[in-house]
Amino acid sequence: MKNIKFYRKPELENPCLIAAWPGMGYVATGVASYLKKKLKSTLLAEIKSEDFFYLTDVWIRKEEIILPQLPKSTFFYWKNREVRRDLIIFLGEAQPPPDKELAFASKVLDVAQLFEVKRVYTAAAAPAPIHHTQPPGVLAVATNKKLKEYLKKFKVTLMREGNISGMNGLLLGVVKQRDMEGICLLGEIPYYTTQIENPRSSQAVLSILTRMLGIEIDMEEINLLAKQTEERLNEFIKTHQKLEKPISSEEIEEMKKGLKDRSEIPESAKDRIENLFKQAAKDRSQAIELKAELDKWGIFEEYEDRFLDLFKKGHH
């Protein structure tokens, strides 16, 4: 298949596709990456980055110029041994350029249909007038009336109007064109936190999605992340009487530094970071995933020198 590099071609039974790209609150990628990790899914294939992305800048770290890697767009699979409903998980590290979006969506679904996927799930954020300590609600949209009835079995609110921006929404438009089934689950996030990772919202979506898929996963790590995010927001709010607009990038960095001082990183996350360092030493394209993991826990500065060593000439 053009533009696709396959690592394996397993026999999958009645698979669903879960697809995610970065977006507001990082809700979608939070859902898909956590599911991928907890299910210990296996690398399946990737879309060749050079066919859809291009570099527009370089990184400068400690007075050195570093050429970044193109974002990866990777498929994983997991075989459900209990019921005949396997999963394909697609994770895009970046949204493709606007002129490539439709072609990219088609390519993702080409791979899905190769494995006879009938239903596609995506996730997104739904900015709402809620406080960050409130349990977020979950909205949902579907591509046909049958699925709308199906959604009523779960504690979700059907989205009546609006739009879902980016690939997490656009993909379902192409799904409908191909007469496939599609569902998007949208986790509520406060208006003032659209630029901050929102694990509480991802957890709310995951609780619905796993019920739909009939699987169980350990939620301990994402619950801890949600607690830490709430703590850093509470600390931030102490110095801000009102939150009527999104928090600025400078304020986000301030909050991350505050979190770093009191973060409790679970052993599973530490082990994952060490494994990612080993992988990145052999394949520098893995550095993007490593950077994302360090940023998620607010500890990049602690590992910065070790991270940059990966890019030094002659490093192996």
Please, could you describe this protein's structure?
This protein is α/β, with parallel strands linked by helices and 316 residues long. The chain has a domain at 4-219: Rossmann fold (3-Layer(aba) Sandwich). The protein has helices at 27-39, 101-114, 145-151, 167-177, 199-213, 220-237, 249-262, 267-282, 287-296, 300-309, and strands at 4-6, 16-20, 42-47, 59-61, 64-66, 73-78, 87-92, 119-128, 138-142, 157-158, 181-190. It has a nine-stranded mixed beta sheet with strand order 1-3-6-7-2-8-11-9-10, sandwiched between helices. The protein has a two-stranded antiparallel ribbon with strand order 4-5. The protein is globular. Mean pLDDT is 86; it is low at 259-263.
Q: Any chance you could write out the topology, listing elements then pairs?
A:
Elements: E1 4-6, E2 16-20, H1 27-39, E3 42-47, E4 59-61, E5 64-66, E6 73-78, E7 87-92, H2 101-114, E8 119-128, E9 138-142, H3 145-151, E10 157-158, H4 167-177, E11 181-190, H5 199-213, H6 220-237, H7 249-262, H8 267-282, H9 287-296, H10 300-309
Parallel strand pairs: 2-7, 2-8, 8-11, 9-10
Antiparallel strand pairs: 1-3, 3-6, 4-5, 6-7, 9-11
Strand order of the largest sheet: 1-3-6-7-2-8-11-9-10
Distance from first to last alpha carbon: 32 Å
CATH-derived architecture of the domain at 4-219: 3-Layer(aba) Sandwich
- What general outline do the C-alpha atoms trace? globular
Q: What profile does the largest beta sheet have?
A: 9 strands, mixed
In CATH, the topology of the domain at 4-219 is named Rossmann fold
Helicity level: 40-55%
CATH homologous group name of the domain at 4-219: PAC-like subunit
Which ranges are low-confidence, i.e. pLDDT below 50, for 5 or more consecutive residues?
259-263
Strand content bin: 15-25%
Radius of gyration: 19 Å
Topology as a string of helices (H) and strands (E): EEHEEEEEHEEHEHEHHHHHH
Number of helices: 10
CATH structural class of the domain at 4-219: Alpha Beta
